[in-house]
Structures are given as C-alpha cells and as structure tokens.
Amino acid sequence: MTPAEIAARNVGPVACAGARSDRNTRISFEFFPPKSDEAEEALWQAIRKLEPMNPAFVSVTYGAGGSTRERTHRTVRRLIEETTVAPAAHLTCVAASREEVDKVIREYWETGVRHIVALRGDPPGDIGGVYEPLPNGYANATELTAAITRIAPFEVSVGCYPEKHPESPSIEHDIDVLKAKVDAGATRAISQMFFDTDAFLRYVDRVRAAGITIPIVPGIMPVTNFKSLTRMVQLCQANLPAWLVNLFEGLDADPETRRLVAASVVAEMCAGLEERGFSDFHFYTLNRADLALATCRVLGVRSAAREGIHG
Fold first, then answer.
1. Are the beta carbons of 304 and 51 closer than 8 angstroms?
2. Is residue 289 in a domain?
3. What's the CA gap between 239 and 143, in Å, rounded?
4. Which residues, other chains included, contact 271 with Cβ-Cβ below 8 Å and sequence gap of 6+?
5. How large a percentage of the chain has pLDDT more than 70?
C-alpha cells in the first residue's frame, strides 16, 4: 500500500496531500500597495518571504475607484527591478478615459509587465455603490480585456464569481459574461474568495458545461481577522458557512488561536480542492506571508533554498 493510500484510509485531505508525490502545484499571491512607510516595510517583508516559493506570478491591486493607481504602478516597477517574481498588474476601467487606460497599458508593456489582471473595478466613494462608466471610458472588464490584447500580447487574467457577482441577475448571466471575457482574450479566471467549496465546484462544473476551457483558479482568503472578513463577504455577497462562524466564535480577543484555526481551515480547503484535481491556487495575502506560506507546504510547494538545506 502506498503512503497516499494509507493516508486516505486513516486521515483527512491534509495528510493525503502530504503523502502525494505526483504534484504540479502552481501558486500565486495577491498584494495591495502600501499607504505608509510602515506598511511598505511589512509588504516587502511578505514579498521576500514568499518569493522563494517561486510563484507563477504576484498581482498588485488597485484601490476602489482607482485610488491607489500610482502606488500600484510604483510597486509593480519595484517588483520588476528588485525581485525574481513575475508581476501581474491590476487594471480597472474606473475614473479613466480609454486614452488614459491605453496609455497605462502601453507603459506596463514598456516597463516589462507581461500579465494584467483586468477588472471593471469598484466605483469611487463607498464600496458597493453604483458603477457608472465614463462616457469616453471602457464600460466593463470585457471591453478592457479586448483593449489590452489589442495593444500588446499580454497574458490577461479576469475575475469570476462562484456565488454570483453582487450586481448580476444570475449565475447564468455571470457565466455569459465570463465567456465574453474569454472571447475578448482572457487566458485565466481567478475566483472571488469563497468558503463554500461545494458552491465553487458546482460553479466550475457549470462553466465547463458552457464550453469555457481556460483555467479557473480558486481565490483563497486566509482568515486573519474574522470581523473584517464578515464585512468583506457582506460586500461581495459570498456565503459564510455556519461551521466557519462557529470556529471563530469567541476568538475576537485571541489572535494567536485565531491564526491556528485559520491555518487549519485554509489547509483543509486547499488540500480538498487538490484532491478534486485543482493544481493552481491564488492567495489573497492581505500583505501577510505566514498563512500562505504554511499552506504552500501543505500543497507540496517548497522554497528552493530550504530544499537545498534539508535535501
């Protein structure tokens, strides 16, 4: 009996993941641009800690309403100049004309960026407000994707929503929108964060049934602050399962135990998805490295430096 068969008979998906040898796991990380010198230091500590994991790419977000545009560009440039990782720059349609967006796209290409995450973006002001494109701007991520691929041969990742985009009338409509983004040149879809794995799997089945074949990458949000998470899921209308609420109940003043619980939750989720055939994982790091790093080990991703020391 193989180690994987023994693990499968006696324990859960995390141990099965540890026993698995035939793996081709690809990971990526999302960061957001810092707002202060202290935040800048924390961001680059996280990047340096995760860089040895050899991620397929790291993405850098725009703030709501394009509010972090210059800081996003500065962080992307620094990633190119100071690290070995491939940056994927977020780009949105918000508060910018087609001409302004096209200029950014060209500047990214000239800087050395070859991968863009194309998103419509949140409207300026309160998150969750009504989005209204500029009369001379791109209306949505489909138009933005078409513009990106027209200007240069970028790799283009787009968003997808396993539990439906908050503004969408139905999952079917969401899948039609994703199909349009693929037709416009999207090469990968990264999911909104989710905690209901069954809902994600059902969504992927429906996407495949619709004839969409690009990779659907699960977006993984390690839970570090449950109160903040609750606000985020309310905005994106993701389901927060009762079992997850119960696990974090009473831990508001106990960050150490919260982190241990969070590590267990994200490890089990990713190991379970790997069992079901998923090999790509995108981590919403919130500029913290530890939980993403621990989960990488569960998925068999090791630092080359560590392997050299211990191997």
1. no
2. yes
3. 29
4. 12, 13, 14, 16, 17, 298, 299
5. 86
- Domain carrying residue 243: 24-301
311 in any annotated domain? no
* Distance separating alpha carbons of residues 289 and 283, to the nearest angstrom: 10
- SS3 of 12, please? coil
Number of structural domains, the chain? 1
Nearest to 71 by CA among 29, 43, 103: 43
Whether residue 143 lies in the annotated active site: no
278 vs 134: which has the higher pLDDT: 278
Of 82, 148, 86, 79, which is closest to residue 119 (Cα–Cα)? 148
Model pTM greater than 0.70?
yes
CATH code of the domain covering residue 176: 3.20.20.220
Annotated catalytic residue, options 30, 155, 163, 274: 30
Flag whether 308 is in a domain. Answer: no
Neighbour order of strands in the sheet with 155-160: 216-217, 188-191, 155-160, 115-118, 87-91, 57-60, 26-31, 280-284, 219-220
Q: What is the pLDDT of residues 79-134, one digit of tens each?
A: 999 999 999 999 998 888 999 999 999 999 999 999 999 999 877 665 566 778 88
Q: What distance in Å separates the CA atoms of residue 306 and residue 119, rounded to the nearest whole number?
A: 36
Q: In terms of DSSP bridges, do strands 188-191 and 57-60 run parallel, antiparallel, or are they unpaired?
A: unpaired
In a domain, 184, yes or no: yes
CB 198 within 8 A of CB 228: no
Given a contact cutoff of 8 angstroms between Cβ atoms, the answer to whether 162 and 194 are in contact is yes
Nearest to 84 by CA among 54, 127, 115: 54
